[in-house]
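In the laboratory, one determines a bound structure by crystallizing the protein with its ligand and collecting diffraction data. In a computational setting the workflow is compressed into a single prediction: the sequence and the ligand go in, and a structural description comes out. We illustrate the idea with carboxymethyl coenzyme *A.
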Amino acid sequence: MSAETLTITDNRTGKQYDVPIENGTIKAMDLRQIKTAEDDFGLMTYDPAFMNTASCKSRITFIDGDKGILEYRGYPIDQLAEQSSYLEVAYLLLHGELPNETQLREWTWNITHHTFINENIKKVIDGFHYNAHPMGMFEATLGALSTFYPDAKDIFNVECRRKQIHRLIAKVPTIAAFAFRHRIGMQYSYPDNDLSYEGNFLNMMFKTTESKYEPDPVLEHALTVLFILHADHEQNCSTNAMRSIGSAQTDPFSALGGAAAALYGPLHGGANEMVLRMLKEIGSVDKVPDYVKRVKAGEFRLMGFGHRVYKNYDPRARIIKQVAYEVFEVTGKDPLLDIALELERIALEDEYFVKRKLYPNVDFYSGIIYQAMSFPLDMFPVLFAIPRTSGWLAQWVELLEDSDQKIARPRQVYLGYRTRDYVPLANRELPETQSAGA
Ligand code: CMC
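The predicted complex, in structure-token form:
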């Protein structure tokens, strides 16, 4: 058998180095020994945006981007979406195995009995402006929650950690729904423990005068599938934020607030909102070819298309497309669907998209379903954050239990000035190269 090593020749010195290969990777720290002189810092890798750097070993989520495969703890996403419940999947992500009946009952009880939030948290939400974006309220309220649970700082205490996990998974739908109700000026609808996780969320969102809210089973099921599909996606931008903040041993409420902030961006979880805005802007099917032309000319990106990892159809988008039709049976078809289908058809045949392997991602169809279910546009990123909470927490626990991990602290390639003397104000001229944005 060939040796599991990489031999590197440094042409600057002529020296050779043997570096071990493990799990298809070399350790960046093994490059540090490659020096041109004794006082040389040693070789580093340069990898902005982590294009080819594994930041951790993980056993949670597997993605094969070329083949379009997604698995949680080894279970294919389509089997989970078809047969499982969101809380069962959350348990799987966090514990590594599907729960048996007793474990699921206990887990569901624990989540169901932590859904209420302290009444003072309502005052935090009340303090927001009437038109505050719900994702901003969501992030800020998570940060505020850390002040209500100072015990959450005891992150290496497994029992304590478990409690925070119950609290977080249970409370994120409540915070999300309360943010929505504040936005539209309606009284808060409190959790109903008789309902499922998803049904209760619909109750807190949409209950009005009825004494008992009864969720539509098709819409409740659609939410289950959407929640399962969004639960984890290995080392994406927000998960990386969760791990990075968590590596400083920050409490999970604060870390989750940071992860949610990363998710908010239009290139990540904010894309579903942007897709709907884009479809509305296009307006009708006949305008699609012209819009695609402008995308190809580099004017803007086609939102809901492309992915850093998937160079094939995103398996989640395939499942979501199916769910969309089920939802439309209840809600009636959204005319934006025709624009989306035409956009997909043209893009999948167009050389620009084919060459770059740009396919619809999870966000392309999810927004159309959310809109059909009466969720307003600015709730879309929040709807992503609710189920992703279990994934973020699973990744956070894995981080804390991984002895290879330390505080995240990337290196840089410094290209700026070196030591120079201070210039008094009167003697300063603005150099032409100075960036206005600096
Ligand atoms: N529309 C048009 N062109 C695109 C798009 C797009 N949506 N995405 C990538 N490209 C082009 C890009 O211009 C580049 O072309 P060229 O090689 O000529 O410069 C090439 O494809 C590679 O793009 P990239 O920016 O190097 O790819 P990336 O891996 O850095 O970006 C992405 C991945 C998801 C940020 C990007 O595809 C994108 O901006 N998509 C639109 C936003 C979106 O839908 N995001 C949701 C992602 S899935 C859910 C999630 O992660 O939360």
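The pocket of carboxymethyl coenzyme *A is lined by residues 236, 267-269, 271, 295, 301-308, 356, 358, 361-363 (CB under 6 Å). Keep in mind that any predicted model is a hypothesis to be tested, not a measurement.
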